[in-house]
Amino acid sequence: MSEKPKYVEKETKRVDVWRYKKYTCKAKILDIKTGKRIVLMNSKDAMAHDIYLGYRTELRLGKKSAIVIVDTSNEMVKPGEIGIYQDAAEELGAKKGDTIEILHMNRPESIEYIKKKMDGKTLTSSEINAVVNEIMDGRLNDVETAAWVSGVYINGMSDDEIIALADATVNSGDKLDLGKHPVVDKHCAGGVSGNRTTMIVVPIIAASGIYIPKTSSRAITSASGTSDTMEVLANVTFSVDELKHIALKSHGAMVWGGGMKLAPVDDKLIRIRNPLSLDPEGMLLASILGKKKCVGAEYVIVDLPVGRGAKINDVARANELAKHFIKIGSEMGMKIEALITDGAEPIGNGIGPALECRDVMQVLEGTGPEDLKHKSCMMAGKLLELCGKVGAGQGHGIALKMLENGKALAKMREIIGLQGGDPKVKSDSIPIGEYTYDVKSQVDGQIFHIDNKVISKIARLAGAPFDKGAGVYLHCLRGDNIRKGNKLFTIHAESEPKLGFAIKALENLEPIEMRKMILGTMQ
């Protein structure tokens, strides 16, 4: 290793980086993924070069570079070595023994803008862009990014700030340009178990000749996300170019948004927001509308479920959010219609990837849960009306006709085939977890409530969404009359131990509490 370096002139005004004279270490690849850009320096080397625990440094290998956070050790790395965890090693293309250049960095400029937001002040578009750029460059660590999220959560955002964040979100990654019009999309605020309307809306819209390249998420706290459910039938991980090919050929696609570089800064912000359970409205709007803009959407339906257990539990709040979606969407060049829907209970009978997938295919085949069928046709119909494909009031009927004449099913099979699945799949051929447990009513009565959160938690304990066949199947819905001994729901699992976890969770609930929290009954 070279002698202790001295300061040199700063090289760039954009990031205000002061660099030492170049010094180098030999790469030692640590075969561990941390989810962050972290490196390990020998404690004596770090001290000699005035680098301390938690400092940022820039690593360079050829033309590639990465901003990393320093950890120190005297045991895992020797003097003259730098331990590079797998995340940073892949970004640099580093291999064992490579000569790595190490450069010092000073504090990111956006720290001042984060403090400004925490003080309740409004940021300019350029300041928000600086925050986003430095998050993407890895110049802000998790603590600093969490401070940014907290500042927005406490003090809110102006409409100009929301639009600036949405635009920066779009510009943080790739964009999909189909070169076709119109392009439509949909979004659900979430919190409703089994709400797999996307997998019915997309084939209906695509069968109508409208382009709908749908990117969706995976489950975080729920039993399944749209991508988890679609993955039962086909691959959902594609590049932007592959998505374009599928969408141009079939008019529709259903892929995992996290598998491509569309609005990648949003994924970084969500990773910080979720553990803190912070969902500031400004970031929510910028996240959703930014992602819609990334796929070229011109017309968007936003589903805002309201009710006990849903993410929105107040109609007044839903109305305010709907107005804000419409206003910000209009400023961004999109026509938005927000639908306030009933989110108090699950939609459909299946909760969990394969069980939800079976519901979807049954609806497309002409049977299936009526509530899922009705809501899907309502949303597809509104999209058809919004983009001018059909007249006002005609959308639901046209959407229903697409189901009844088999065109939506044929389109779904086409999309499944293009995404690498079996286009001949049928609802009764979808494998479901073979380990089961029936939960039966202990009283005569009527179902008056099914708790979204508790049902979802039981499904997750049974293995969903990672075990595709795991979950819960509801045998009755709100308003159904039941007799003592009737089946309320069945738990499905792919292994006996996981079924045991779900059963144990039920046993920990008192009988009266279970009736109240899971499937409320009235004697």
Quick tags:
523 residues; six-stranded mixed beta barrel; 19 helices; globular; disordered N terminus; four-stranded antiparallel β-sheet; alpha/beta; single chain
Taking the sheet with the most strands, its summary is: 6 strands, mixed, barrel
DSSP helical segment count: 19
| Overall spatial form | globular
By DSSP, the count of extended strands is 18
Q: What is the terminal separation in angstroms?
A: 79 Å
> Stretches where pLDDT falls below 50 for ≥5 residues?
1-21
The averaged pLDDT comes out at 89
Based on CA atoms alone, the radius of gyration comes out at: 26 Å
Strand order of the largest sheet: 1-5-2-4-3-6
Structural class label: alpha/beta
Walkthrough of the structure:
The protein has helices spanning 43-48, 86-92, 110-118, 125-136, 142-155, 159-171, 198-207, 226-230, 240-250, 264-276, 281-294, 315-331, 353-365, 370-386, 395-404, 407-418, 452-461, 496-507, 511-517, and strands at residues 23-30, 38-42, 56-61, 64-73, 81-85, 99-104, 184-188, 212-216, 252-256, 299-306, 335-342, 350-351, 435-440, 445-450, 471-474, 481-482, 487-493, 519-522. Helix 3 packs parallel to helix 5 (142-155). The chain has a six-stranded mixed beta barrel with strand order 1-5-2-4-3-6. The protein has a four-stranded antiparallel beta sheet with strand order 12-15-17-13. With 523 residues, the chain is α/β, with parallel strands linked by helices. Helices cover 41% and strands 20% of the residues. The chain is globular, with a radius of gyration of 26 Å. A hairpin with a 2-residue loop joins strand 3 (56-61) and strand 4. The longest helix is centred in the middle third of the chain and has 17 residues, at 315-331.
